[in-house]
Design goal:
By secondary structure, the protein is an alpha+beta fold. Helices cover 59% and strands 10% of the residues. Strand 3 and strand 4 form a beta hairpin. The longest helix has 66 residues. The chain starts with 26 loop residues before the first helix and ends with a helix.
């Protein structure tokens, strides 16, 4: 009586002591690359963009300050000359300048109406000062520039006009520019962080989770040809996928060879003496 070869049933293998069990990754294991890429992009764009914006604004600020100083100097010279001419006309008519009414209020209003002019003082030849109302400090501010215009009338020097200029009044919008630049750099840094986290970090996390899933499947003894996808590139992730794919294909081929050889042995085991030993050997090799 001829005996037909008996096909060996696939044996489900359980992890043994030498087979590592891959546990599901935690939060940082699932989103670590996303967080790392986002934070790296945020810091990189923030630092480089902030430094670049600071350089640009600093150069622009220096240029504006230089132009503002030149402009307020011209404004102060023009105001001082115009006021000196007015007081010279009063001197030509023989009117003492210290007897003129409303001079203090007039100087205060003029300084208030002209941008870049902080204070105007009429200093007479006898040393007397006619200052703006509520001004007790005179023109002794070392951080500002003072422009002088002499007053000549009747063949003599009646005094001088002192115009204190303030370039800061012309460059106050620069503070808003710095705030706007900071907002723009911060916004660009956030956009770059979101883009890096979404386009790069999330993809790396997905590949890592998929890779661990394949490892977990292999650790359970389940090898499937072609289950590991081909990943292009020359980075470490592509090399890891290629190694896993190659190793799984070799395991499938080895398992197929072992199963084929076992079937051949069972085909000649007419009395069934070797069946238990063959199945145990196949299970151990698996």
């Amino acid at each position: 009586m001829a005996l037909e070869p008996v096909a060996l049933e696939p044996i489900a293998l359980e992890p043994t002591a030498h087979q590592p069990v891959v546990h599901p990754p935690g939060f940082f294991g699932r989103h670590g690359a996303t967080l790392a890429c986002g934070i790296a992009a945020l810091l990189l764009v923030g630092i480089i963009g902030g430094f670049g914006a600071w350089l640009i604004i600093d150069r622009f600020n220096r240029s504006v300050e230089l132009g503002a100083r030149t402009e307020v100097s011209a404004i102060g010279t023009a105001v001082a000359g115009a006021l000196a001419h007015q007081f010279e006309r009063a001197g030509d008519y023989g009117i003492p300048l210290d007897k003129l009414g409303g001079v203090s209020e007039y100087l205060t209003q003029t300084a208030r109406d002209v941008r870049g002019v902080a204070r105007i003082v009429l200093r007479l030849s006898n040393g007397q000062e006619i200052r703006p109302a509520n001004d007790e400090d005179g023109n002794g501010d070392p951080t500002r520039e003072t422009v002088f215009a002499p007053i000549f009338a009747g063949g003599g020097n009646l005094g001088q006009i002192e115009v204190l200029t303030d370039a800061a009044e012309l460059i106050t919008p620069l503070a808003r520019m710095r705030a706007l630049a900071a907002l723009m750099v911060g916004g660009l840094a956030l956009i770059a962080a979101l883009a890096a986290a979404t386009l790069v970090g999330r993809r790396l996390d997905q590949r890592r989770i998929e890779f661990l899933a394949h490892l977990d499947r292999n650790a359970g003894g389940n090898f499937i040809r072609g289950a590991v996808p081909r990943v292009g590139g020359h980075d470490d992730v592509a090399h890891a996928y290629q190694a896993l794919r190659t190793g799984e294909e070799r395991m499938v081929e080895s398992r197929a060879a072992v199963d084929a050889y076992a079937e051949e042995l069972l085909g000649v085991d007419f009395d069934g003496v070797l069946r238990d030993r063959i199945e145990r050997t196949v299970r151990e090799l698996g």
